[in-house]
Every structure is written in C-alpha cells, then in structure tokens.
Amino acid sequence: MLFSVLMANYNNSGYLAEAIRSVMAQDHADWELILVDDASTDDFEGAVASFRAEKRIRIFRNQRNYGCGYSKAKCVEKASGAILGFLDPDDALTPDALSIMVAAHVDNPGCSLIHSTHYICDGSLSVSRIAEYPRPLPDGVPYLLVSDGRIHHFASFSRSHYDITEGISPLNRRAVDQDLYYKLEEAGGILFIDKPLYYYRIHDRSISNSGNESAAQLCHYSIIEEACLRRMRAGRSGQMPEKGFLKRYRTRYFKIRLFHSFRQRRWLSFIRNFIAFSVMGGMGNLLSYLRKLPLEGRSLLRRSFSDSYKIRV
User: Fold this and answer.
1) CB 282 within 8 A of CB 250
2) What is the pLDDT of residues 138-182, one digit of tens each?
3) How far apart are CA 282 and CA 142, in angstroms?
4) What stretch of H or E contains 246?
5) CA-based R_g, the chain, Å
6) Alpha helices (H) in 79-175, listed in sequence order
7) 198 with 94: CB under 8 angstroms?
C-alpha cells in the first residue's frame, strides 16, 4: 500500500537532508515523498540536489510564500497514496513508522486518523524523552471537546476519509494540523498507537514553539470555533450522528470565544461571551472553576487566560 509522506518546507534547508534520509530508511518500501517548498530564501536547491534522482521523491516549489496551510493542502493535492502523513522538514521518522501505520490502517479501515506518540529532541535531534501528552481519547468523547494536543506526531490519515472533508484550508498559517484532525474526526474513527514513531525537534525557528506559542494559540481558538459551528450546523441538519453532543459543542464554542476575546483584549465581546457561556450550559463549569480559584489562584488564571502551552526539551 502506497504511503505518501508529505513535507511542507520553508527555510529549513539545514534540516531537510536528515528528514529525507529518514524516509528513505523506512522498512516499508512502498512510499513516496511529496515535498512542497514555500519559496524559501535559504539554500533549498542545494539541500535537495542529491535527492532529485530518487524517483519516489517529488519536489514542488511555490512561486511566492503562501504559508503553511497552502503548502500542506498542495502536498495532499499532489499525493497518490491511500495513506498519508505529514513529516515536518526539521523532524524525522523512526525506520518502522510507515510499516506500523500501514498495518494499523489495514486492520482499522473505519479510522480516518491514526496517531502515535513521539520522541522529543533537542536542536541536534538527540532524544530527550518520550512525549507525555499524546494519548488516546477518553471513551466516547470527541477530540473537539478535549482539544488538548493529545493528537500529535506521527499522525497518518486515510485518503478516502480525507476526501469527504472540507480538506486543509490554504488560508491557515498556524494550527493547520489541529484543523485537519477536527475535520478527519468528522469522517471516521481515531486510533492511538502507544509507540514513538517520530523524532520531534525543538528549536528556535519552529512556527508553534520558541516565542510563537501565543500566535499559534489564537489561530487554534479560531479553528476550534469554526469546527464547533460546522458540527452544530451538521447536527441541526441531521447530517451528524452524534446529536447528543450538540449542546456540548455550543457550550464549547462560547467558552473558546470567551478565552479568545480575553487574549485579544476585546472586552465588550468578552462580556457577551461570558454571558452566553453561562446561559448555554457553562454554569457548572464556572462554579467548578470558582471552587478551584482559592486554591490555585494566579496560576489558574494564567493557565486560562495568558499562558500558551510550550513543549520543552
């Protein structure tokens, strides 16, 4: 079964060779690598020159810098595999990553998305630890109602399921993967593999770490809001099987809008969303929060309204 490894690159030429070699070292031979460069200004051509003779590697370049969403959508468009998965150009795969994912999809054809845990590495890709946050979903709880980053690298998805979603939005510049996961959840099941299949590098040019966490968080808020609205519309029209979650999606929507407006300092919107959240099923959540406040104080407020999650080596 053909596995399409998808790589959207921008100014990561110093890491590209290591990422590409990790694909070429796979014990699953039926693969292709779709590499889309988003008009990098570093030595991209020099970094990929030695790989152009490999027929399984297909390289494309954007005429100008369009952003992560555009490049990732183009990766999917150019791919031919039945199973696909993104590899960031500054990361790497374990040698058995593709074979394990292909076997999991064959055994679980109803799953649109299968993800694993990964190794957290420093800038030189030396392993620090196995990531603690990737894990299975709680029984009967959709990922959209959790939204805690537990779906992470390595994530692979079925082309047949992807094709019935709206697909990756070319307009998103951050939180592109999370948007994809919410959409795939609407098309099929999600399975977790409790084995690290990916080396995740932490360095100072990451678009979601090292100073970019706040911008990524704001984008994620917008994506969650869009996903909630999409599922609420589907539920009202009878297109969504999980109608029992309709009220919870509505509550989730106003809760995220509450946090979003606070971080953007839009105080009138914050007040409106606070009232809406309270009325639309959030009162129990608010009371629980108030009970925690005397014990956790400022740390609870910071986690809720100012801090952005940061992965550390």
Assistant:
1) no
2) 998 999 998 888 999 999 999 999 999 999 999 888 889 999 999
3) 18
4) helix 246-263
5) 20
6) 97-107, 159-162
7) yes
- Domains of the chain with bracketed CATH: 3-201 (3.90.550.10), 214-305 (no CATH)
Tokens for 28, please give them: 């699953």
- What's the residue count for the chain? 313
Give the H or E element holding residue 274: helix 267-277
- Cβ contact 116:192 at 8 Å: yes
Quick: pLDDT tens for 94-140: 999 999 999 999 999 999 999 999 999 999 999 999 999 999 999 98
Name the helix (H) or strand (E) containing 60. Answer: strand 57-61
The 10 Å Cβ neighbour count of residue 7 is 24
CA distance 248 to 281: 8
Residue 23 and residue 5 in contact, taking contact as beta carbons nearer than 8 Å: yes
- pTM for the structure as a whole: 0.89
What are the angstrom distances between the C-alpha of 168 and each of 34, 98, 182, 222? 16, 22, 11, 14
